[in-house]
Design brief:
The protein is mostly beta strands. 0% of the residues lie in helices and 59% in strands. The protein has a single domain, classed as Jelly Rolls, CATH 2.60.120. The chain has an 8-stranded antiparallel beta sheet, with no helix packed on it. Strands 2, 4, 5, 8 and 12 form a 5-stranded antiparallel beta sheet that branches.
Length: 176
């Protein structure tokens, strides 16, 4: 029987430039859930990178080794698909985010092979963005991999010309 075990949880209550969700130290699949994520600059972006331990510290990996693709599902417009090879990060929802009252953003990332130094780490992505009003949302489904076989211990979510002003991020391990 599978169960989940909380590894780490962080609640953002004041503006920060990034949030590192680390603590992966086993070969289990992990889940990172973000809910109620808010930013301070309207129509700006967040991006995601993997982290690894360097001299005892979790460091974002910034080499142009990220490949990602996603499908944006919009109830009020045509669907859009994107693919990006050799990037230095993955943009959250591949879309600008809203910063007005009532706008918040959520995601679920499944993390695979993160503790495995002989395989590529990758995630599957499900996210939801409110980027114009609190009643208009769209979602994104996709995946990202880091094209270097090395162990990673987590993920960092960083503002791109914005800060993260609120929300809760929780990392879980799936026990099987």
């Amino acid at each position: 029987m599978e169960s989940i075990e909380q590894v780490k949880s962080t609640t953002v209550t004041s503006a920060v430039s990034s949030v590192i969700m680390d603590g992966i130290s086993t070969d289990h699949v992990h889940i990172l859930i973000g809910k109620g994520i808010t930013i301070n600059t309207d129509t700006n972006y967040l991006h995601t990178r993997f982290t690894k331990v360097v001299s005892g510290v979790s460091e974002p990996q910034t080499a142009a080794q990220y490949d990602f693709a996603n499908l944006i599902l919009k109830p009020d417009a045509a669907f859009e698909s994107f693919k990006y090879p050799d990037r230095t990060e993955m943009y959250f929802a591949n879309s600008p985010m809203g910063a007005s009252a009532g706008e918040s953003h959520s995601f679920v990332y499944y993390l695979f092979n993160f503790n495995n130094s002989s395989q590529y780490s990758y995630i599957t992505v499900e996210d939801n963005v409110f980027n114009s009003t609190s009643s208009t949302s769209h979602g994104s489904q996709g995946a990202m991999q880091y094209g270097v076989a090395e162990a990673h211990n987590g993920i960092v979510i960083t503002g791109d010309a914005t800060t993260i002003t609120g929300g809760t991020l929780t990392l879980y391990k799936i026990n099987n």
